[in-house]
Amino acid sequence: MNAGILVSRTIRLDGRGTRLDPANRFETEHHDRVDDGWETLAEAVAPPQTVLIRDATRSVISHNDSPDLGFDRSLNPYRGCEHGCIYCYARPTHAYLGFSPGLDFETKLIFKPDAAALLERELSRKSYTPAPIVLGSNTDPYQPIERQLKLTRAVLEVLDRFNHPVSVITKSAGVLRDADILGKMASRNLARVHLSITTLDPRLARAMEPRASSPIRRLDAVAGLTAAGIPVGVLAAPMIPGLNDAELERILRAAAEAGAKSANAILLRLPQEVGALFEDWLNRIMPDRAAHVLSLIRQTRGGALNDAKFGSRFVGTGPYAALLSARFHRAARQFGLSDEPPPLDCSGFARPPHRTGPGAQLSLF
């Protein structure tokens, strides 16, 4: 059996990153949909709607020991992401939940309604040692559904009460909604925000990241956060050889002019199913450039579409990757952007007194 769903090219899924739902790699049975030539499949498939699913997890802080990351813990209020970024390295994690990394990742969103309460419980443990928590290391904490659920804001309120440092990663201008909390925390050196800006071309952004904020709105968010006293970094990530990497210097210049103080660039990663999803998207959106882009990607990944090895997975190997890295460092120096922002302050961490009154949780001891 083929390990995927073959969807007719006549189907249009406006507002979604992919049209494919590859089979879950952990399942033993795969079901294929194949058009019979009369376009009946296209008629039968309705545009997928977003579905929210409650997560019953009993912990929210994820720990890692990766030598490639500058943090050891993170928190993601959501699993799956409606932004629909075709290149998203987090797509394969949806398979662990029994879903597809394709359309399921964009349309079946797992939310953690108890995230703030669980975080408060974990921070209250006497054994807990503070270190910066990254919000959005896997999926975006300000994806569209956050406007209604406000789980990220509730998490920030807990971190603020505990004087606990946080670093936010997003490609949404929605982060401006929480500038009040982030501004208070930043005044105590407890918060910074990283905006991901992949391109300044609104048409390319809409194709790659269909439900994320437009490039101009992300730059506006950089300026708005800076005005609120919140340190902002920009991630020119992912850089895709032959597609958006020519914009690297322009992105860094625009970020610096908007007020960003730091920047980083990460080479495109295509783990697990993402490679096939990206290749299908590329052939559909820009068939005249697809072969060239894929060839350049392979030149930075030892002949493959992906390299998962520590030390090289973020930067790639070979002359093309080395040139991209040199261009980034030169541009960062030119525009006054640091690639190593100053550390956040963990020394003020304190467990607040137990709250009393309606809704307060009683101590077990």
Helix content: 25-40%
Q: How many separate domains?
A: 1
CATH architectural designation: Alpha-Beta Horseshoe
User: Which sheet architecture does the biggest sheet show?
Assistant: 7 strands, mixed
Find the count of extended strands (DSSP E, 2+ residues). 10
List keywords for this structure.
365 residues; alpha/beta; pyruvate-formate lyase- activating enzyme; seven-stranded mixed beta sheet; three-stranded mixed beta sheet; 12 helices; 31% helix; globular
What would your notes on this structure say?
This protein has 365 residues and is of the alpha/beta class. The protein has a single domain, classed as pyruvate-formate lyase- activating enzyme. The protein is 31% helix and 12% strand. The chain is built from 12 helices and 10 strands. The protein has helices at 40-44, 103-107, 115-124, 146-149, 151-161, 179-186, 202-208, 215-227, 248-258, 274-285, 290-300, 318-334, and strands at residues 51-54, 62-63, 73-75, 78-79, 108-111, 133-135, 166-170, 191-196, 232-239, 262-267. Strands 2-3-6-7-8-9-10 form a 7-stranded mixed beta sheet. A 3-stranded mixed beta sheet has the order 1-5-4. β7, α6 and β8 (191-196) form a beta-alpha-beta unit. α3 packs parallel to α5, α5 (151-161) runs parallel beside α6 (179-186) and α9 (248-258) packs parallel to α12. The longest helix has 17 residues, at 318-334. The radius of gyration is 21 Å and the shape is globular. 41% of the residues are buried. Residues 1-12 and 356-360 have low confidence and may be disordered.
